[in-house]
Amino acid sequence: MSIQTLLMELVLMPLVAFVVGLFMVLMLRRIGAKLQRRVGPPVMQPLYDIVKLYGKKTQISHGWMHDIGIVMAVGGYVAAETLLPVPGMDGIADKGGLVTLVYVMMIPSLGLALGVGQCANPNGSIGIARALTAMLAYDVPFVIVVFGVAWYFGTTNLVDIIAIQQAGGVAGWGATAMPLLAIAGLFALQGMLGKQPFEIYIAPAEIATGPMVEMSGKYLGGLFVMQCFQLYTAGVLYVSLFLGGGENWLFFLLKVFAVVAIPMTVAFLFPRYKTEQMIRLMWKWPVMIGLLGLAFVMH
Amino acid sequence: MTPLDELLLFSGLTLVFLLLLGRFSYAGKVATVFYGGQLLFLAKMADRIVDGSIVTFSLQVELFGQQMSWRFDALSWFFAVITLGAGLLSSWYASGEWGERFRRRGGNLWLLNVALAANVFSMLILLGSGDLLALFIGWELVSWASFLLMTVAGGRAIQAAMRYITYAMSGAMAILAGIVLLWSHAGGLQYGQIIEVIPQLSQAQVWLLVALFGSGFAVKMGLLPFHLWQAAAYAETPGPGAAFFGAISARMGLYAIILVLVQLIGLARLSELMIPFTFLDMRDLWAWIAVLTIILPTYIALRQSDARYLLAWHGIGQGGYMLLGLVMGDALGSAGGLLHVFNYATNQAVLFFAVFAVMFRTGTADLNKLGGLITRMPISFFAMLVGIIGLAGLPPMNGFVSKWFVYRSLMIEGEPLLFLGAIIGTLGTILSVYKLIHNTFLGQLRVEHVEVREAPWSMVAPMIILMLLIFATGVAPGLVLDWVALVQSAVGLPVVENTLGGVELASGSLDMLWVVGVLFAGFGIGALLFYSGGRTRQVHQLDNYAGGHFLTAEIRYHYSDNFYAGLMHLIRPWYRGSFVWLESTLGSLLGIAASLIQRLYGALHPSIYLLVTVVVTLTWVLL
Amino acid sequence: MSKKVTPWLDNLLQEIEGIEIRRKDSRRVRIDIAADSLPTLLELLRGRAGYVHLSAITCVDWIDESQFELVYQLWSYESQSLVSAHIRIARDPGVYVSVFDLYQPAAFFERDIHEMFGVYFEGSPDMSKFILTEWNGPPPMRKEFDAEAWVNETFERKEYQPDWLKEITEQGGGIVKSPEEARQKKP
Amino acid sequence: MKEIDIPIEASVDRNRTNPLARVFDELVRFCRSRSMFMLHYCTGCGAIELPPAMTSRFDMERLGIQPMVTPRQADILLITGYVSIKTLKRVILTYEQMGSPKYVIGICSCTVNGGMYWQSYATAKQLDQYLPVDLYIAGCMPRPEAVLEGMRKLMDRIRSGEADGWKDYYRRYDWYLGNQQHLFGDDWQTPADVIGEASHYDLAGPGTEGEHTRLLQQCQKPLEPQQTFFQIGGSLEVKGESHE
Amino acid sequence: MRPENYQAISHPPSNEYELNFGPNHPGIEGNYALKVKLHGDVVVAARADGGYLHRGFEKLMEGRLWIQNIALVPRICVPDPVPMEVCYSMAVEALNDMEVPERAQWLRVLQLELSRIAAHLFTFGGHAATTGMYTTMYWGVADRDQILDLFEEWTGGRVYHIYNIPGGVRRDIPAGFLDRVSHTMDYIESRLPDYDNLFFTNQVFVDRARDTGPMNQQQALEWGVTGPNLRATGLAFDVRRDDPYLVYDQIDFDIPTEAPGDAWARTLVRRQELKQSIHIVRQVVEKLPSVSGPVRTRIPNPLAWNVPPGETYTRVESSKGELGYYVVSDGGDKPHRVHVRGPSSMHAVQVLEQLAVGARLEDVAQIMFSLDACPPEVDR
Q: Is D157 domain-assigned?
């Protein structure tokens, strides 16, 4: 691969992720609107919000770590996108692999946690404490899934994983070979996106949106951008692991949107759990299903 | 003179210098230079080590007709580098204002410096041991030197040190028994002889051997279930001592485990030892001990409210990763384990330095009495940030690389449960280190800390060096992996094929140069996006959302205690159920032993105590 | 459904001095009693007659008589009747005893009366301000406090004379006569 | 719905000469008008008509309006009805914590002139004496349709750049502060530093500082300095050890 | 100096910290505040802080004519204004010894019950929103609007109706109105299964609400709790039945009760009350055509209406509990004293403070909403 193509991919991949992410946010809000029997926002609404927030006149900061936190939150996801192969673009996916991706995806959370910490708001701190606890909860089934997939395909290189799946057609998809792990993965996805019933760290009625509590202007805008990336990353990762990645952009996007629509729909039909209820649920059913699936895979 | 002669001589000289002239205020600075000198001698040795040859010590001692010899191979050299590095930076840290304050407050700086030098010296002797007898003597010296350093602070530290020495003595007994067992079969204690005799031993004998040596070394390493002494003993040690302990001291146990279990007995032989009534073999047992050592102490650390204790408990937990990697026995895993020794030492040292810098300025390490210091001690904050990213094992710091190696090894070997355990430990680490940095540096700045300033240069400089080291070895892990590869070949493990940025594997490789490069490119884009927005303006911390209310400085609104309350609601019963039961059972057993020993020595002054014990040890060894 | 307050209670109540009982209807009883005897009465009503629910405590300012009237509304779930006990206390100094030990809801009402009328209740658990925490004036519910005057003194009024209103006024519509004026004409 | 003359000092928006910058400004103004986050703060009874306006029947989100929880996140402060003096303090704090550009909508008649509580000792009468009100929606209480209509009007005004009450607050801070001090007492203070903000963003005007701000500085309880200290000290003193 | 009201509950060196619920907080109902002191996520002390909605109603009413006050009273409880009008009108009628025509009484019952349905739908929405279940809120508020439409057609006002006046009601129902009422009732009844599936039987919600803020019957009686909160502890007390007013003694309805007294029971009681109210509305719709006659009695010139001296205490059952008006007349054209006993003044202050202690941070908002506290009633 020439260096020019690589550089182009490194620029394009985050950009595509952002644009697709914007539409995912739109879909999230539209699904909510449909379930709540109303119209919902206009198509460009997510973009309006972000442009407006970046265009605020006063930007209230609580210190330099607050600033750096947002930079890390957005930048970490920008970096993560280049580790995530999409049709026609592999980026540096073969330089890092699945484990690295999982860990790079924690960087934005860490940045956010530090930034929120400096805001010196108890609501934010509780929110971060809950977010990290939630991470502990959903990562257990998630790593079982990651392990199972890596074992089944014999590699942690996402490019190879996708190639192996595509070679076998639908029958070769991870979801066909490892249905139980795919189900466990859906649970983890719900937790990863922090949607109800696992929406414990935003919880407006309890901690006034937790980490977002002191975020204004471009800080909040950064979080909105991060949300786009987060939805995209979670969707694409799931598709890459279980649904054969993307043969072409059309099918790829169809699959990604379909996957992300599941947690979004569930989100509007449930209240949120308490923290320990969430952990208990996450460590019970998905882990059980995941371990069972793992046992099948490793046999 | 071989380089090893020079090194040991110079190290002994440092000790003698401090013993004689340690009372002068410049002694600490000179000692720091001396440690630097020792490091130079070590560097001088490097080309021979790279060749794979062994550097010997000229002096040989004959005891009971046993030839005692000392030599450095790649394994010793690798550990010695870390030891001296930790010694150098700790001494540097102590040599300036910190030491001055310590002395003014009535601390015995002379004893601290001497104990540090004694530790370094004895560890070098241990690392250089060329046969089991020398190993045992070195082991005892290290134990007593550690004890000396632990007692410097007095008070609660003495209790912790007593507990330690109880454990250490019982561990030494086990080792001695193992040595006797081997000696009775091999007729000698040279490594060569032992390697020959091991295959002839029966399964039961090897079983006993592994149990004896293993438990003896595990005490020092703080492996489960012998971990209970360590946290208090390390945390109560004053500043640089704690950093030194945290960085390397416990790793002597790992060194011995590598030497005896991996090099002499061999991992293959371990796999043959089945555990009765189970489908586990000895190696699995070690792996599970490692995983439990990762998980349990990490989650105990989560509950600590004293920053030093929190770090000390993590020290125990991180040892599990090293052992886990090693027991996997493949190139990746053992490389990860060995690399983690280095990485962890840097992380732990910088974290302890940062915590003691905070203590230096505020007088407390109680996580509930701090907060908001980021604006007052930004460099210490940054040091702690780098440290926690490394300790938690996130890119781009070096801790990520070693943990990645261990994970990949577990994935390739097909150990899902061990993998899960390791990940749960990592997640617990992330949780508790965030608590550490949040409660110390983030959140509400307390009224009484408004005047606090950054720590002085003598304390900041070692932190900056360590930060750079952590980052550099994170970006280019190949630098350390080269050494690790040497160690692997010296020990007889498969050698990892590393590149500068990590490792190339058919089943998914790692190139940190790329990963970090892209990460920082991402940060760049993030920053670009961020600074494309309007100008920021910093507001006061009281200009804050409080449900519409007005905040005043007198109100405490910093969330610090019981930080992961939601999680604790679920897992608190487990602490009560398992950990406390474990601790109380072991505690009552060990309490009996401890009380016996304490009754003997408890009344004595530490220095007299030391003298007596040295005499006892010498007579014991000689007779 | 409706039960009458039992005769024995009537007899019992007669024993308290200075008590005057009036039945308004089958479910409403009014008792006027001396201020000193009220705790005894309430104790009787609560302990012996099942009036466990304190519905309200009201303070009425009789400024002409220089007295505060305190009205305790008590409801019995068993006999399903409401007793209102009326006492009068002196307006100055305006101190009375709390009935919190008998009826916990009294805490709220007494606190409220304290900040609105300035009546102090001895033994009430919390006499700190609840509603008027940022009010520095006199207790506003006292009759001598003229809220309207205070408002006129403190606030400006927005002049609102838009053209359309002027037109209407010119045509003889709009507000030509204030309610006060309208009332003045009738006796 | 007749317009009421609101005493806001007219300001001239500096139109940038660079055509690209003007397009950019236009874009930002457009997005501001299409994305209005209103603060979730029920100050009075008019708040009861906001849920209907938000929810399925009238669905404010169609217009890009959505409720936000904290003042930092919000653009629009809806004063839904009477403000008691106790609430007014919180409202002012909340307003000052919001990021500019920010807009205040006075819903219900009470915000205009006290409404039916004109003789109440507990409520403030004219909201625009304390905060720059961009738009009033009269009625007791205005129906959801009226609220939406008002929002549409505000959108137009934001789009055209007329809704600049927030600039007025910076420019005539002294006047607003004077009214606040008149009502709350001379020792009135919020932790937000409006004057500092105005000068930082070059929004200060001749009326930013005056006698009332001087009074504020006299009576102010100083806030501790909060900037980061990067210098590395050499003192051996321990600060705050007394607390141990 | 900042406002003095901020009384910190206590100060360090304890490790507890303070958190403010409200007044600007989604976890608080209306403009109200609850200051809590927490250890971890468990509340160790709670203090209600009211007065944000204080307008001095009782003072205002002393300065206005008897008839003018009709416009004032509904503002006291915004989500459920009708009982305020009815209760005040009943008080004035009692002072004047005035008879209310039967048709007016039935109309008042109709209005009271419609208002109760609207208030309960609103409460469910709020309660659901505190647990992150926004769909219920969106549905509930939109369905409540159906009832507001009825009110608007009937009285001209969506929220405040100023419809009940001393002596009766302002005017009769418009033509065909009863059909629309029954149609709306059919609609709301048809929506109830959806609500059940989405909210009341949602396992996640049940897990959250069970054992949250429990209050036993003994405590409820001690604390003076009334209304659905009392009935959720198992005591079947309802002013409509036990101290009947209007024509409630001619109407057939049940008083739903639940034993546990937790947030779940309180919500369930309201859910059943909704059903009962629909049942009552149906009965009124059936009965109304057969009751003819005027809808109000003549009153004197309202601008110079001197009410005979006296005092009275009237109570009605509002959606939050027992609502009482103590009205004193000194024979003038304005009341001498009006005291409003808002039902929330019990459970929004003392009960909330006590239930919050020991509760989890997650549950504080839920407890408040499940008690259905209405701050303007407290502040007045």
A: yes
Substitution target in A36, A48, A66 with the highest count of D β-carbons within 10 Å is: A48
Give the pLDDT of residue D239: 47
Higher pLDDT, E5 or C71: C71
Distance CA B604, CA B68 (A): 33
Give chain D's domain count. 2
D138/D128 Cα distance (integer angstroms): 14
Q: Which residues span the domain enclosing E184?
A: 57-379
**How much is the pLDDT for E14?**
66
- Tens digit of pLDDT for each residue in E213-241? 888 888 888 888 888 998 999 888 888 88
Whether D229 and B551 lie within 8 Å, measured CB to CB: no
A:210-229 residues touching chain B, CB 8 A cutoff: 213-214, 217-218, 221-222, 225
Backbone φ and ψ for D127, nearest 5 degrees, come out as -65, -35
**Given this model, what pLDDT does residue B599 score?**
55
- Left, alpha or beta for D114 (phi > 0: left; psi -120 to 50: alpha)? left
Could you tell me the residue range of the domain that residue B419 belongs to? 321-532
CA distances from B341 to B38, B315, B398, C149 (A): 20, 11, 11, 80
Q: Summarize the confidence of residues D154-179 as an average pLDDT.
A: 86
Q: Quote the minimal CA–CA distance from D201 to chain E in Å.
A: 26
Sign of the dihedral defined by the CA atoms of residues E267, E269, E275, E280, in that order: negative
Please tell me whether residues D209 and D118 are part of one structural domain: no
- Mean pLDDT, residues B206-212 taken together: 81
pTM, two decimals, is: 0.88
Tell which wins on pLDDT, D13 or E199: E199
Contact at CB, D227 and B448, closer than 8 angstroms: no
> Any idea what DSSP says for residue B611?
H
Q: Which amino acid is at B510?
A: L
Residue D92 belongs to a domain with what CATH number? 3.40.50.12280
User: Does E257 map to a domain?
Assistant: yes
Q: How far is A219 from chain D (nearest CA, A)?
A: 9
Q: In this predicted complex, what is the ipTM?
A: 0.86
Give B174-195 pLDDT, tens digit per residue.
Answer: 888 888 888 887 777 788 788 8
Share of chain E above pLDDT 70, in %: 96
Q: What total number of domains does chain B contain?
A: 1
Q: What is the pLDDT of residue B620?
A: 59
In a shared domain, residues D101 and D189: no
Is residue B590 predicted with pLDDT exceeding 70?
Answer: no
Domain of residue D84 covers 16-163
Please state which CATH number belongs to domain C7-185. Answer: 3.30.460.80
Number of folded domains in chain A?
A: 1
Does the pLDDT of residue B576 top 70, yes or no?
no
Which of B462, B452, B382 has the alpha carbon at shortest distance from B95? Answer: B462
Question: In chain E, what residues touch A204 (CB-CB under 8 Å)?
Answer: 26-27, 132
Instruction: Kindly state whether residue E48 falls inside one of the protein's structural domains.
Output: no
Query: Both D72 and D187 in a single domain?
Result: no
User: Both D204 and D128 in a single domain?
Assistant: no
Phi and psi based region of residue B215 (left: phi greater than 0; alpha: psi -120 to 50; beta: remaining) = alpha
Residue A32, chain D, CB below 8 Å: the answer is: no
Number of domains, chain E: 1
Q: pLDDT for B491-541, tens place per residue?
A: 888 887 877 777 777 777 778 888 888 888 888 888 888 888 778 888 888
Is E5 contained in some domain?
Answer: no
Residues 174-233 of A with CB under 8 A from E: 196-197, 199, 203-208
Q: Is C142 within 8 Å of C117 (Cβ atoms)?
A: yes
Residues E22 and B546: beta-carbon distance below 8 Å: no
Residue B108 lies in a domain: no
- Nearest Cα to Cα of residue C113 among E214, E380, E181, A75: E380
CATH number for the domain harbouring residue E213: 1.10.645.10
Mean pLDDT to the nearest integer, E60-86: 88
